[in-house]
Amino acid sequence: MSIKLDPRIPEGDIHEKWKNHKDHMRLVAPNNRGKIDVIVIGTGLAGGSAAASLAEMGYKVKAFCYQDSPRRAHSIAAQGGINAAKNYQNDGDSVYRLFYDTIKGGDYRAREANVYRLSEVSGAIIDQCVAQGVPFAREYGGLLDNRSFGGTQVQRTFYAAGQTGQQLLLGAYSAMNRQIGKGRLQMYNRHEMLEIVIIDGKARGIIARDLVTGEIERHSAHAVVIASGGYGNVFFLSTNAMGSNGTSVWKIHKKGAAFANPCFTQIHPTCIPVHGDQQSKLTLMSESLRNDGRIWVPKKKEDSEAIRAGKLKPTEIKEEDRDYYLERRYPAFGNLVPRDVASRAAKERCDAGYGIENNATGEGVYLDFSASFVKYGKEKVNELDIHNPSEEEIIKLGKKVVEAKYGNLFTMYEKITGDNPYETPMKIYPAVHYTMGGIWVDYNLMSTIPGCFVAGEANFSDHGANRLGASALMQGLADGYFVLPYTMADYLADEIRTGEISTNTPEFDEAEKHVKERIEFFLNNKGTKSVDYFHKQLGKIMWNKVGMARNEKGLKEAIVEIEELRKEFWKDVKVPGSDKTINLELEKAGRVADFLELGQLMAMDALNRNESCGGHFRTEYQTEEGETLRDDEKYSYVAAWEYNGEDINKEILHKEELNYKYIKIAARNYK
């Protein structure tokens, strides 16, 4: 039966929607919450905060992660900060301005009501995290400090040096541990969800594999929360942890959850460039660095060629011979344009022959802090009342200020590249980072499978076609701490009399049988090629034809090539070892099998959207200046795909129209 999209957006003024919705949702009384079981998949910021909050309320919660500890979730890698509309800097910020920046940054392809709610609860997130002891940076007077991020003209990003994600995750982890100690939360480390179980149309549990013993387990619940992150690793090389995968979202998609905007992928502009064919992942340098770093390439091609050949150093390029191309093209925002804009601008310069990295592609630009060393050094000289300082003294003091703000990032860069960024500019280039697409959810964050909720990066709801920097942590914690505890209660109010869900049912039998058959296939298949061989091949197709720039010809080729690669995978993949112990190749095989199907759907979605918007850049649809060219008449909708059998080409497209009442749609302008 075909799915139906019902966003369930409350009536009324947008400023009152969430408040009125909460006032009229059903509740589960405290004495009844212990009768209800909830499963949470993923323990990053979205899953960790949801698990801790629901257990604190009294529900019986089981949380699953494939890592050896929730502290290993990929949220730990988020460095730069978390947005909130508190206007501490007195520079004109407000809930509405955060809402506006997020909609505009996403190129007008996000749902208004969800984004406004996100902005509305953002301030409460900071209060919650401060109460947990998260060590946000503070100003001299003791107030929380803020810095700027791309796509905004205010300072609203709260941060903890260059390790904000880690500190926020430790806050959520502490809250989880409190509930584990009380016995309300059971933690299943080193477990992977391999199937969702649906009984009488409702999500009623999962099949999981213990990744240490290989045991296949049945777990039942009255509701399931998927908070497993994004699917950027479909490109093989990305900034995601190597274990990050799309299996959980793909499994529920195949059981009836619509997949929304799969082609909306974010390319992050400040990553360390690719350095070889054997590289297994890419490293992100925080967007916060664009606050104080200036991005440039040489103005003269011969200088770029000399740098690539090792005959010239960047410090030898005179100021007048440097092209600060973001400042030149976007004077109003400069180096703080949104990620998709900065990424395409870097690609344009490198494609034109001005790249500075001496790899095979020449793909790289500079991120230079020399001007900030001087600026901060002069400020420090005045603070310390130093008269007639030398240039060396000024720069030395300035470097100390920059070190206090970004020291761990500079150290990480030097350990990876061997270059000291205090002495020579960083080399950066865009890379796959975040996925704005994900499982379609309604206003309550429930998928088209009743009882299956989706939170954080795993859902599609808040970022449109491009996510603003420092908004991922905001969305994950908003969903887990401040949205799901209300919306799940409304659903679970009907479950008080249901009683314990049995795992001894035909639905659990069938789901477990399917999981075991797939594992047996992988271990018994007499193939000759490794899982990584197929993953790398998929990654090349995805990056070259479904990456930063796309066109009709390439996307049609990608769909055919991925389908052929998928057939070859099932014929010729080789998975060594046993299923009775730790087997990383077996884990990867299941994940890559899912990526091969998801990658094909991403290409189909990109081919269907005949416009450019945010991170989705079709080269046929651009302005004379190379900016995105939307088609609001035809494509102002969420593309929600319904699974329709093994042939991905037969997926059914459903559309949720986007109607903007509180924001005027316009061409994005950061100039």
TrEMBL record:
Residues the record marks as active site: R339 (proton acceptor)
Annotated catalysed reactions: a quinone + succinate = fumarate + a quinol
Enzyme class: oxidoreductase
Subcellular compartments: Cell membrane
Domain FAD-dependent oxidoreductase 2 FAD-binding: from-to ranges: 37-473
Domain called Fumarate reductase/succinate dehydrogenase flavoprotein-like C-terminal: residue spans: 535-670
Membrane-topology descriptor: Peripheral membrane protein
Keyword list, A-Z: Cell membrane, Electron transport, FAD, Flavoprotein, Membrane, Oxidoreductase, Transport
Family of the protein in this entry: Belongs to the FAD-dependent oxidoreductase 2 family. FRD/SDH subfamily.
Protein name according to UniProt: succinate dehydrogenase
Naturally occurring in which organism (per UniProt): Apibacter adventoris
